[in-house]
Amino acid sequence: MSATRYRQFLRLCEEWPRDEAQKARDLGTFLRQRVASAFREGENTQISDPEKCDQMYESLVRINSNYYRQRFPRVRDTSFTGVTVEECKLLLSSGNVQQMDEDKKGLWKKLSERFSKSPEDVPEKAPEK
To answer: Cα(90)–Cα(125) distance, rounded to whole angstroms?
Structure first.
């Protein structure tokens, strides 16, 4: 029976979309990692709580099939702030998150990082004549 569950989860992982803008932070990547760790032995993995496993699978299928989005349609595709889906995706992309993290650093942290570099990291100047 665990072989059937393993195949179901593999099929779900194949269907689940990946968000390349978020790289290692998207739900598809996290799901693949969790399935790999939960089913370390593949089809031979013994499941301690089959009912809980089935509930998780059914919940993930409903999320993947947009069950709740169809059941509870939204009036508008914006949030209370007026930000659209495309703008949210842009804000949450990995490059933008790294830039925001860099901007959050205080002056002291930026200076200490700049001056704590080893001499090998600093490019040499040509000798003046």
So the answer is: 40
> Which two structure tokens, joined as six digits, stand for 91?
């804000």
* Domain spans, the chain: 1-73, 75-116
- Using only C-alpha atoms, the chain has a radius of gyration, in whole angstroms, of 23
- The values of phi and psi at residue 98, to 5°, are -65, -40
Contacts of 113 (CB under 8 A, 6+ apart): 105
Reported as a single tens digit per residue, the pLDDT across 45-83 is: 788 888 998 999 999 999 999 999 899 988 877 777 787
pLDDT over threshold 60, residue 126 = no
Q: How far apart are CA 38 and CA 119, in angstroms?
A: 46
Neighbours of 6 (CB within 10 A): 19
Residue type, 124: E
* 59, 22 Cβ separation under 8 angstroms: no
Chain mean position to CA 20 = 9
